[in-house]
Specification:
With 115 residues, the chain is α+β, with helices and mostly antiparallel strands. Helix content is 36%, strand content 29%. Strands 1-7-6-5-2 form a five-stranded antiparallel beta sheet.
Length: 115
C-alpha cells in the first residue's frame, strides 16, 4: 500500500518554485527531459514528478495537476519522522519563499525594472 499523500499548492510558476527551493537551501532534481524526477517513498515506492526534493530517505514531489497548478506529494509520515518537517511547515516555508520570485518574474514580464 502506498504512503504517498497529496497536498494542494495553488502555485503555477515552476521556475519560482525552483527559486524558492534554492532559497531554502534544499537539494532537488527536476524533470529536464520529460522523464520525470523520481520521488522516493516508503518501502521503495516511487512516483514521477516535475521536481523531487531530497529530504534524506524520503522525497517530496512537486507534481503537476489537471488544473494547471502543482501539488506536493510525499510520504509525509516518513519526511516528518526522519527530518522533523511536517507537511504544514514545509508548505508554509515554500509559500513564503515562492511569492518574491513569482511577483518579480511577473513584473519583469510586464517590462518593469525590479531593484
Amino acid at each position: 500500500m502506498s504512503h504517498f499523500t497529496k497536498c494542494e499548492l495553488k502555485m503555477t510558476n515552476l521556475l519560482a518554485i525552483k527559486k524558492a527551493l534554492e532559497d531554502l537551501k534544499l537539494k532537488f532534481q527536476y524533470d529536464e527531459q520529460g522523464q520525470g524526477a523520481v520521488v522516493r517513498g516508503y518501502r521503495g515506492d516511487s512516483l514521477k514528478a516535475a521536481i523531487s526534493v531530497d529530504m534524506g530517505q524520503y522525497d517530496i514531489g512537486v507534481v503537476a495537476n489537471a488544473e494547471g497548478t502543482y501539488d506536493l506529494t510525499a510520504d509525509w509520515w516518513g519526511v516528518e519522522t526522519t527530518q522533523g518537517t511536517s507537511e504544514a511547515e514545509f508548505k508554509e516555508q515554500l509559500y513564503q519563499r515562492y511569492q518574491y520570485p513569482n511577483v518579480k518574474q511577473a513584473c519583469e514580464e510586464k517590462g518593469y525594472a525590479v531593484e
